[in-house]
Amino acid sequence: MNKGKLIQVMGSVFDAKFMSTGIPAVYNAVEVQGDFGTGRTSLWGEVQQHLGDGKVRIIALGSTFGLRRGMDVMDTGSPLTVRSASRRSAGCLICSERRLTNEVPLRRR
Fold first, then answer.
1. 32, 35, 37, 39 alpha-carbon torsion, rounded to 10°
2. Where exactly are the structural domains of the chain?
3. C-alpha Rg value of the chain to the nearest Å
């Protein structure tokens, strides 16, 4: 896993700088761990754009409240994945906080 530093936060998007040899691929998942005002937790994001000079733009999959410049950003080395927990959850929408958003599976056409 490559490690970078958070350099800028703009709403639900943030930028990170990695070593030029270890830039995460577009669509890779990244994780920022820290204290975001509600205790120690993680924020997941997805790389959306390479900005050059080792910088990447990342879309956050949760609140960016409490993010600060200089926090460590870890590249997972792979895209986001969602595991189906059970047959009951198959076809349901799942929010980034890992809760089911509907009780009835979506109808297939």
1. 120
2. 3-79
3. 16
The rounded distance, in Å, linking the Cα atoms of 53 and 66 is 26
Q: What is the pLDDT of residue 40?
A: 80
Rounded CA-CA distance 3/71 in Å is: 10
Cα three-residue angle 77-47-29, rounded to 5 degrees: 40
Quickly count: other Cβ atoms within 10 Å of residue 32's Cβ.
25
Does domain 3-79 fall into CATH 2.40.10.170?
A: yes
Tokens of 80: 């986001």
Q: What is the pLDDT of residues 60-88, one digit of tens each?
A: 998 898 899 999 999 999 998 766 666 66
